[in-house]
Every structure is written in structure tokens, then in C-alpha cells.
Write a structure and sequence with these properties.
- There is one protein chain.
- The protein has 335 residues and is of the alpha+beta class.
- It folds into two domains: 180 residues, Ribosomal Protein S5, domain 2 (2-Layer Sandwich), CATH 3.30.230; 129 residues, GHMP kinase, C-terminal domain (Alpha-Beta Plaits).
- The strands form two sheets. Strands 1, 2, 3, 4, 5, 6 and 11 form a seven-stranded mixed sheet that branches. The protein has a four-stranded antiparallel sheet with strand order 8-9-7-10.
- The longest helix has 21 residues.
- The radius of gyration is 20 Å and the shape is globular.
- The protein starts with 20 loop residues before the first strand and ends in an 8-residue tail after the last strand.
Length: 335
Amino acid sequence: MEAEATHEMFAADGGPEAPAVVVRVPATSANLGSGFDAVGWAVDRYLYAEVRPARETEARGGPPSRFEVVGEVPSDARAEGASLFFRAVEEAFARAGRAAPDLAVRLQSEIPLGKGLGSSAAVIVAGLVAANVLLEGKLSVGELLSLATRLEGHPDNVAPALLGGLVVARAEGEEVSAVRLRLPRVPALLAFVPEVELRTSASRRLLPDAYARETAVAAAGRAALLVAALAAGELEKLPAAFGDGLHEPYRLPHIPGAEELYALCASARPHGCLGCYLSGAGPTIMAVFATPEAREDFRRRFSEHPLAHAFVPEPLALVEEGAVVLARTPRGFSR
């Protein structure tokens, strides 16, 4: 979780400064249809968090601790981000048996809010990783994953945000088990991002409290096929694996145009579209393709479809690297 390069953050906000700690965390797309709350992969949109000691801001006449977000962000989202980040820092320090210091934090994110691409997971992981730098690496990756899962409520976004790549994870109580898979064949992704937002908390309230046994059995079979097909590089098996009966039937009706987009993806299977799934809790719909060429052909044809006014297609790539430290302080920063 460390990289040699440094990142010139917030140059448009007054020029780059020598950062105390800068952490980069990727966006994530979770569930992959049948892998509900268990499967996710990291994609190439990023959140950057810069963390400085309070004494540096005090020297410039600032408050003892503060939280800034670069760019136009709604005030409620700004407050939520601050709460998540500082909770993550406090949890990490508490696990290490230490009190969290006063910090100045700045975030810059390419990850859209409330779109099902792991924006909250990225904030949590950034807080935990930055805190662990200040703790001089006292917490293991397993401890960071356990804390992140507890804060997020499920591991399918935080695990790939922390570890990178495709991750299958299971949480039971405080114990979180995760396996990161290297894919022999990497599919091409096209995210269809609508204007509407769908908060995870609201999306979860749409789900039933119990399922029929037949539904559960079918879900287990699809999830097993999903992971096996990806691990073996047999992408042609994915159309049968993306189907879901646990969450998508209850969420898709609340996303205008979603069911029509699913039908459009299904009609493009002869042309290399392997299917689509609801990314996380939605509302983004992720289409999966056998090749980048098939993706570009679909995107070109979609631009002339009536649904083009409802969704913005955005090509994404899987990334193997999870959270990384781009810059760090000397020893003793947090003392």
C-alpha cells in the first residue's frame, strides 16, 4: 500500500504543497450481479486525501483541526465525508491503543457521490490508511479491513478499495475473510451513470427481510459461477452469472430507464456484451464486455439511442492497485 510517486494535490487551489501524508484510494464497483455484498473490484477513478498535523495549520492561523473538500460538493455530503473520515482515523488509533491527534484533512475525489461506485468506502479506507501511516504501520492489512468493514457495514466495496483488483470477501462479526483474485482475462467496463442519486441506506430499505429457498439456491449457484468464470478467464460464462434475485429486482424499478438498458445489453450479447449489473446499491449500471472494441462499438451505438439522455456512459478499467500512500511524513509526526 505504498507508492514512490508523489501527487501534486489541489494545484488549482493555490499550488502544490509538500504533503504530510497523501493517500490515494480507487473507486469500486460491487455485487457484480450475483455476488451480493461479497464481490467487488477496483476501478480507475480515485479519491485523494491529504492529512497534515494540526500544528501546521495553527502556524498559519487556522483552527486546530479542519476538513476541506476541493470542488463543488453539497454541504450534507461534505459533513458526511468529514464524519466518516474522522471516525475511521479514531477507530484506527483506538485499535492501536492511542488517542487520535488533531488533523487538517483535504479531500479531492473523482468518484461521483451517491452513484454506487464506492465513494463512502474510499473515504473510510483513506482515513484508515492515513491513520496507519501516522501510527507507523502498527495495524495489519487484516485489521484495517476489519475496521473498514465495521464502518461501512459490508466488505464488498472496502475490500477492493483497500486491496485492489477483484476481491471476494465475507464478514461474520469482527472476522473478515478476503481473497484477491488475479484475472487471466480482464473484461472491459462501461458505467452508465444516471443523474438520479440512490443512497445506499435508502436502497437497502427496498430489500425484503427473507427469501424463498429456491431464490437463495439460485443466487448461490450464480455467485459461484461468477467467481469461477472470472478466475478461469471463461468470460463467455458471465451472462449466466450476472443474473440476480436478491437485490436487483427490488432496486431496478426505482431507476428510470434501467430495465430498458438491461434489455439493450442483452440484445448486444452477439456483439460482445457479456451482460450488465447494478453497481453496488445503484443507480449506476455497469455493462461488461469481452473486449474494449466491443465496448466502444456499444457506446457509439448507444449515443443514438433514446436512453442516451438518461445515462452518461463512462469507460472504466479494472485496477490491480488498491489504497496507496503517495507521500508520507518522517517518523514522529503524530507524537
